[in-house]
Each structure stands twice: as C-alpha cells, then as structure tokens.
Amino acid sequence: SHRRGPRADMVPEIAAAVGFVSGLLRTRGCVSEQQLQVFSGALREALTEHYKHHWFPEKPFKGSGYRCIRINHKMDPIISKAASQIGLSLPQLYQLLPSELTLWVDPYEVSYRIGEDGSICVLYEAAAAKAPSSYGMLTCKNQMMLGRTSPSKNYIMTVSS
C-alpha cells in the first residue's frame, strides 16, 4: 500500500523513547543486557498499545499530555509494568531512574526533561515534520514556548566548563 502524506506508524518515536529509558537503566549497570531486551520489548508493546488511538500525525501535539511519560516522585505505570516483567521492584526503579523525568512522545518529535526546571532535550526529530532546524539531535529546546525562562545555552556552557 502506498501511503502518502504523514506516516501513520509511530515506530521511530516509540523506539527513541524506549531506547532512552533503557539507556537510563543501563547506565547504572545493575540490569543485564538480556533483562534490558525484555524490558525494551515490554515497554515498546505497552506504549504502542497505549498510544494506538491517541496518535495524530496531522496534529502532532494533540493528545500530547496523554502520551507523556512522567516520573515525578511517582513512577509512570507503563514503566513500572514493563519493569515488573524483569523483576524490578518500584524501590529499585526509583533508585535507577531520575525522580523527576518527563518524556514527550509526539509524532515527529520525542523530547525529555530531567528535573522540573531542566532544559528540554530532543531525542528524536523527523526531518519531514518541519523545515530543517538549526539545532542538532541532542541540543536543548528553547523554553520560552513553555512559558518559563531559563539561562541561554551559551550561559550554561560557560558555567559548566
């Protein structure tokens, strides 16, 4: 079948989100590669199911809140369900993952923020969604659109040097 216009599948976006969460678990080194594969598969399936009727490539931000994965001192149920398949308990998850994490999985763009006032970083961006952007894959989005101000990127770089 030749689909024209926006693609309907959410494979790359979900892959980016799953890869990001698995990567956070991997950095702590207490989860085996085999467990990570099971976790990734479970999370991918859960997200695909969860997003199925809430994915609007023609209106990428519609349903964004519903698709948002959130940990704010309370574990996102989708993550805890996938983690339970590899025997990770909630207390373990809280140790392995940031206590404040928001992951937005929208058509053409997946981004995340760690900490309530952190910068938003883009994990995945589809070229087709908009004109070529001036920033690369992992730079942080301007936060003015979120109604909160944060220091400019250059400022952050000089401070952290």
UniProtKB/TrEMBL annotation:
GO terms for biological process: negative regulation of cell population proliferation. It comes from the Eukaryota. Residues 51-71, 97-116 form the Anti-proliferative protein domain. GO terms for cellular component: cytoplasm; nucleus. Transmembrane segments: none annotated. It holds the Pfam family BTG. Belongs to the BTG family. This is BTG2 protein. The gene is Btg2.
